[in-house]
């Protein structure tokens, strides 16, 4: 049986820019607009701690709007106190809210990211399905062990005419080990590297190259969901169709909101290391999936190569942030590099 999506989504996935809806499919199962085809992906090497202060562009004063007719509560990820992988951006989502471009520099000036060791980074604005997204990342992946805090002093700050943020917020989180999982779909293998050391080369099967191509490019683990029920009806395929399926699959880690996972796929065992037969997921043996699940964190990197599918969506279908070069990333920032 060929594999694909689950039935439901974690509420936390709304932070990636999509509302919680039924699951989608591989790159060919469903088209979801992003913010353009990515090019020149960022280097996979971790960012080096800043050795000197980076000159910062002076932020204009933010516009405050006491007694606003509409008050917005932005969603922020990761959660306070979380340990996350080196690919996890700081993500602020203004759900179903436009943010006036002329106000964005002042808003960025109210957001202070502090890091230890110091690591420079930048904010980037994007829009997806009516949401305004504001993400912060370094030039390269976070150094393992970095302590990060966000002081979001946005209370009463204007977002658009008549609309302001409800209150200030502060979060602290930690970057875990540098887990970089590289999937070569031509070789049908996943190479797992942790803190620069190759731990295992896992035989895998990816999305069927004729029907359900896996998205190419850099993704992150959005959630560790354990046992997930996957149902072909969620991507419009009846269960009794030749491509239909229904079942529970263990050690499932979500990569995209539309439904690409890394998970155990014992019913595809004959294809591991040989051919791509899934509906977009990366399947492997139960033993390998259990081992990988135990080592993984939300925010760990999964880089897919060798797929003829469309590129990973930059925004709106998970965290495709790292598919933008640093130059592209800075073009989406109002203030540019911040010292951290």
From TrEMBL:
Low complexity bias (residue ranges): 38-53
Domain L,D-TPase catalytic: 179-305
CDD domains: YkuD_like
Keywords in alphabetical order: Acyltransferase, Cell shape, Cell wall biogenesis/degradation, Lipoprotein, Peptidoglycan synthesis, Signal, Transferase
Source organism (scientific name): Streptomyces netropsis (Streptoverticillium netropsis)
Residues annotated as the enzyme's active site: 263 (proton donor/acceptor), 281 (nucleophile)
Pathway where it operates: Cell wall biogenesis; peptidoglycan biosynthesis
GO biological process, one term: regulation of cell shape
PROSITE patterns: LD_TPASE (PS52029), PROKAR_LIPOPROTEIN (PS51257)
Protein name as it appears in the record: Lipoprotein-anchoring transpeptidase ErfK/SrfK
Superkingdom of source: Bacteria
One GO cellular component term noted in the UniProt record for this chain: extracellular region
Signal peptide annotation: 1-21
Molecular functions (GO terms): acyltransferase activity; peptidoglycan L,D-transpeptidase activity
Keyword Amino-acid biosynthesis carried by entry: no
UniProt region (Disordered), positions on chain: 24-54
